[in-house]
Structures are given as C-alpha cells and as structure tokens.
Amino acid sequence: LLIVAFLVASTLVDRAQKAAASAALILGAMLAAWGLLQVGLSGISRAHAFLETPATYAAIINLLLVPVLALVFLGKRGALPLVAVMLAAAMFAGLSRGGLLALAAGLGFTVIGARRARLLKTRAVEITIALLAAGWIIATVLRALPSSQTEAAPSVEVRAESSLSRLELYAQSWAAWRERPFTGTGYLTFR
What we know:
Elements: H1 2-11, H2 14-40, H3 54-73, H4 80-94, H5 97-116, H6 122-144, H7 156-179
C-alpha cells in the first residue's frame, strides 16, 4: 500500500501532490478527532475510531504524525503544528505500545537524517518535544474527564500479562511468516 501510494504521488505534479497531502492531513485529523472523542466523551479507554484495534489506529496515525513532525522539525509552519498536536494526542489516546515504539523509531530516523543533512537544530528538537508533550497532556486530560470513566483502562497486571503473551504470538507469527513469506495470511486472519 505504501509503495502504491508513493508511486501514485510521484506521478502527480506539485499542485496535485499538495492537494493529496492536504486531503490526507484532513482525513488524518478527522480520524484523530474521532479517537479523541471516543476517549473524552464516550468513555472508551483506548482510542481506535472505526478500526478494529488501537494498534491499527496508531499505525495509521503514525503514517501522518511522523512526516508532519518531520516537516515541523524542518521549519514548516502554518497549520502543521496544530495538526501535529492533534495527531500526537490521538497517538497517546490509543495507548498502543507498538504505535509508540513506531513513533520513536520514525522520529529516530528523522533525527538521523536531519543530522546527516546538517539540518539538526536544538530549537527544532525543542519544538518537536513540545508538540508531543502537548499531545500527551491533551490525551491525559481527556482520559481524566468524568465522562471518560465508563470503561476502565487495563490494569498493570493485565498489561503485563498481555506483554508476556506476545512472546507466544511472536513465535506463531514467525511460523506463519515462514509458511507464507510473500503473501502472508491477510488482515485479521492470523490465528
């Protein structure tokens, strides 16, 4: 999907690329708002919008958040900082460990690339950290609203058990990958 999106985007002229990027940002902001409303008003403990799991939600948010943060990091302004805060809040509202790990990896690669290109500036790092912190604060405040108390967040014991059970899932995933390395099993069909 990413390769197809890249190929399509590379064939567009500058104006069409900007229009496609704007549409993606608008859709991403709508998805982020949906998840934030779930946590803040509906009482759902982990944002996922219309998607099956918070991890899928976090993956989609990351596809926009990392590039938006990279653009802000490189000095682009306008509405991008606001969109970055909204996407960051959505990421934190999802409580996806994998999503946060992917965010850290994406930002790590951004820093490495900026450093190699000699674009790494202390002020840009401070702004990026501030945008992420603002997103975390928004997600935390939404989670603390009285209306958001209808569904309890997973306890420490449940999250620890979930983390340990993932080792078994990793072993099963490795076996499934060895069985079908190129075609896979398909979305939500892994057993």
